Amino acid sequence: MDSTKMSLADFMNIQDVDIMERAERFTEFMEDVGRMKHLQYKRVSIDGSEPVRRIIDHYTGEIKEMIYFASNDYLNLTMHPKVVLAGIEAVERYGAGAGSVPLLGGTIDLHIELEKKIARFKGCESALIYTSGFGSNAGTLLALLQKEDIAVLDTLVHASIIDGCKNTNIKLFKHNNTESLEKALQKVKDKYRTKLVVVDGVYSMDGDIAPLDKIVELAKAYDAYVMVDEAHATGVIGKNGRGTPEHCGVEGKVDIVAGTFSKALGSVGGFIAANEKLVKLLTYYSRTYFFSTAMAPQAAASIITAIDVIEQEPVLREKLWDNIRYFRKNLSALGFNLGNSQTAIFPIIIGDDHRVREICRCLHEMNIYANPVPYPAVPKREGRIRMSLMATHTKEHLDKALDAMEYLGKKFGVIGNNEMVNT
Ligand SMILES: Cc1ncc(COP(=O)(O)O)c(C=O)c1O
Fold it and tell me: Which of the four pLDDT bands, split at 50, 70 and 90, describes residue 33?
């Protein structure tokens, strides 16, 4: 099998073969990807989340020390001493797990403290915590929207939102395009019981920010509610790191604020923040919440402290933004296309998927850990290298990545002979 002529999408819906045959063909595809040294998924680290980590090389079995541009731990709070200590103290006091689902014996005082804290941080009346951000998005939408309702979605919303809309109707609008949103709202006007506009605050493959102020205004004008997924925005954007509503000046005006604790908050889990009555409804009707064991105590304790750190140590966010500005200025000066990225996520758009995989293979050999993002994760011919920054990357780390990208960009004909900007 020639993997260069295929993509992961080809194995999603193969007709007329059963699951074992599908798995067989997929394995042949992956073996060829491996032969080409294009297999950059599920690389194994033997260190925690740091800007430089030791990785077990898939191909040689050797341990490589790599500069890591693949983490969503934007403020590096996974390693913050106060956040780590809070987790240790909680595991000693409460043990390793919650022991039961939240409604039937699994809730501890730390869960309630975290729910209150994240609700306050997000400017909402109340909140509910889940064991993953995927579960909080999908579980909320599945609980709220049925066939009489409609979800009006940005085309690039996260998979958890799409999966959450399996029981309802969907109307898509063009990415971050408020004219297209207005047209969609006009089309669905007066036709459905509940209309819910759902967007990401910061888009995970593009790093751009939703124009949430305009989205809220339009939704109100057309009698629709708004839900925003703050996975990549919390802790990163907004003057105080409170996310997209703060950044766009609409705090308190978004009906449902969703998010994850697994990115800038440095742990694992998700949340929904909204008015008290809606949260009460979700507590009893959101199946990914009440049919799933409550969050581990050490995660809850670490996240509580992580929110304190975000509020008390703005210097971390300032360092992250210093890095973002420096990296963006230099990648742009080299001539790379970064789409509309405005945040710590850098989509370096390469185009052809084969070239994306080749560049990633070379980056791996040069000890730079970045992820290839080919079709179907992004549209055809918009394949990219995705790099994300942390507050703890040094200028030296960033310069090494810039040098590597300059060399590879020229070698593979992605950029011309532009120069880096020295600042
Ligand atoms: C935009 C977005 N929403 C939700 C999620 C899911 O969050 P979690 O990793 O906590 O399940 C992710 C990715 O992880 C994401 O990128």
Answer: confident
Q: Where in the chain is the domain with CATH 3.90.1150.10?
A: 28-68+314-411
Question: Which residues, other chains included, contact 403 with Cβ-Cβ below 8 Å and sequence gap of 6+?
Answer: none
Q: Where are the beta strands (DSSP E) in 161-269?
A: 169-173, 195-200, 225-229, 256-260
Q: Answer whether the bond into residue 372 is a cis peptide, omega within 30°.
A: no
Q: Report CA(394)–ligand 1 centroid distance (Å).
A: 26
- Residues of CATH 3.40.640.10 domain(s) within the chain? 78-312
Per-residue pLDDT tens for 339-386? 999 999 999 999 988 899 999 999 999 999 999 998 888 888 889 999
Would the CB of 262 count as within 6 Å of ligand 1? Answer: yes
Q: In what order do the strands lie in the sheet with 44-45?
A: 44-45, 52-56, 63-68, 368-369
In 145-247, beta strands by DSSP E: 150-154, 169-173, 195-200, 225-229
Instruction: Return the residue whose CA atom lies nearest to atom 7 of ligand 1.
Output: 133
* Catalytic residue flag (residue 232): yes
Q: Residue by residue, what is the 3-state secondary structure of 378-398?
A: CCCCCEEEEEECCCCCCHHHH
Instruction: Please say whether the beta carbons of 246 and 235 come within 8 A.
Output: no
List C-alpha distances in Å: 156 to 116, 131, 308, 331.
Answer: 30, 24, 31, 24
CA distance 190 to 186: 9
Three-state DSSP state, 24: helix
- pLDDT value at 100 more than 70: yes
- Whole-model pTM: value is 0.95
Query: Among 3.90.1210.10, 3.30.2010.30, 3.90.1150.10, 3.20.20.140, what is the CATH number of 28-68+314-411?
Result: 3.90.1150.10
Which of 72, 134, 200, 202 is the best mutation target for the ligand 1 pocket, counting ligand atoms within 8 Å of the beta carbon and taking the most? Answer: 134
Domain covering 78-312, topology? Aspartate Aminotransferase; domain 2 (3.40.640)
